[in-house]
Each structure stands twice: as structure tokens, then as C-alpha cells.
Specification:
One of its GO terms (cellular component) is postsynaptic density membrane. InterPro entries: VPS10-sortilin. Keywords: Membrane, Receptor, Transmembrane, Transmembrane helix. The chain has helices at 68-86, 119-138, 169-198; strands at residues 22-32, 35-45, 50-56, 93-97, 104-109, 143-147, 150-159. It has 199 residues and is an alpha+beta fold. It has 3 helices and 7 strands; from the N terminus they run E-E-E-H-E-E-H-E-E-H. It is 35% helix and 28% strand. A hairpin with a 2-residue loop joins strand 6 and strand 7 (150-159). The strands form 2 sheets. A 5-stranded antiparallel β-sheet has the order 4-5-3-7-6, with helices on both faces. The chain has a two-stranded antiparallel ribbon with strand order 1-2. 22% of the residues are buried. Residues 159-178 have low confidence and may be disordered.
Length: 199
């Protein structure tokens, strides 16, 4: 007896380019036969930002059930730890934990909300935030307690391909798409998990 496995199609949906920064509503649907599940999220679109891959103490892998809810919880914990250590506003930090093992994540550093219209000042603001975050991460100051007796350290890994972008529209579009790709894939994986649990 074979199990019905849902599959995902993202034809063209992940290639949409937003022309303006700001809040947008994204809806993702998963369907098979007469069953349809959808989820709607509000996302923030930023023209430029920086990102960095993160890794963790190996003991985190032993407690990783590899389910969307756990990744969302860990992402919130990492964000809270970063804010606590650096005092950078939480609105400037996004953390996306990837599926699978070893456990890894991507840190997105955004310009301050109040100055996103002022390009040069935003770049300086981003650079300062990045320096503070990297300094804390490189000194192993970003830690959190997974449960009593289990302390996790957050590390910097290799740089990603989403640096602070330059004025070219092509680079800006690529940066937007890279950030949106994480959101789309995260929503899709979350919906597939919910969908499979109903079958």
C-alpha cells in the first residue's frame, strides 16, 4: 500500500518582483483532490539588507525534531538572544532556521524602519548593526538555553550571497527575491507539513 505524498509547485510564483518597499500580504496554497489548505502571512519587502549564515553547537542537532513549529520557535529564541546581547531593535533582525541537519539558519539584518527612505544613512546604519552583531557572534556571546542543562552557542559561518546591495536595480531585485525566497519556501514547507498530517 503506497502512501499519498503531497508535492509542491512554485511555477513563476517565486519570481515576483515587488517595486516598492513595505508590507505585503502573501498567500500560499497546498491542494490535492478536494482538500485545500492555505496560509496567509504579512511580509516586509526591503530593497537592501545584509545576511549571514549561522551554525550552532552540535548538541542542538540531538534535540532537532525537524518540524516547522520547532524551527519557528528556535528562530524566535535566536532573535531574542541577538537583541538581548546587542541591543539592536528587534525590527532590524530576522532569523530563518533551515530544515534538515546539521541545524543551520540565516540571519537577515534590515535597515532601521525610520530611515529606510534615506539611502546613505541606511547603509551606514546597516554597516553599524552588522559590525555589532558579528562582534557578538565572533566572541561567542550569543547563547541560549534550550532546556535546563543544554546551552547552545550561535556561530557565524560563511558569508551568503546577499550583501549590502549597490544602486543597480538588478542587484536590488536579487536581494528582494533572496529574502522573499526564504519566506516562500518556509511557508510552503510549513503547509506541506500540515497537509501531510491531515492525510
Amino acid at each position: 500500500m503506497s502512501l499519498l505524498q503531497p508535492f509542491i509547485t512554485l511555477d513563476s510564483s517565486i519570481s515576483y518582483i515587488f517595486t516598492n518597499e513595505g508590507q505585503n500580504t502573501i498567500t500560499v496554497q497546498v491542494s490535492a483532490g478536494n482538500v485545500l489548505i492555505q496560509d496567509t502571512r504579512n511580509i516586509a519587502v526591503h530593497e537592501y539588507f545584509q545576511s549571514q549564515l549561522l551554525s550552532f553547537s552540535p548538541n542542538l542537532d540531538y534535540h532537532n525534531p525537524d518540524i516547522p513549529e520547532w524551527r519557528e520557535d528556535i528562530g524566535r529564541v535566536i532573535k531574542a538572544a541577538l537583541v538581548h546581547v546587542t541591543s539592536i531593535p528587534k525590527e532590524q533582525i530576522l532569523v530563518a532556521v533551515f530544515p534538515g541537519l546539521p541545524t543551520s539558519a540565516e540571519l537577515f539584518i534590515l535597515p532601521h524602519q525610520n530611515i529606510s527612505e534615506r539611502r546613505k544613512y541606511s547603509e551606514d546604519d546597516l554597516e553599524q548593526a552588522v559590525e555589532i552583531l558579528f562582534s557578538a557572534l565572533n566572541q561567542n556571546l550569543v547563547q541560549f538555553e534550550l532546556k535546563p542543562g543544554v546551552e547552545i552557542i550561535v556561530y557565524v559561518t560563511q558569508l551568503t550571497l546577499a550583501p549590502l546591495v549597490d544602486p543597480g536595480a538588478g542587484h536590488s531585485s536579487s536581494a528582494m527575491l533572496m529574502l522573499l525566497s526564504v519566506v516562500f519556501v518556509g511557508l510552503a514547507v510549513f503547509l506541506i507539513y500540515k497537509f501531510k498530517s491531515l492525510l
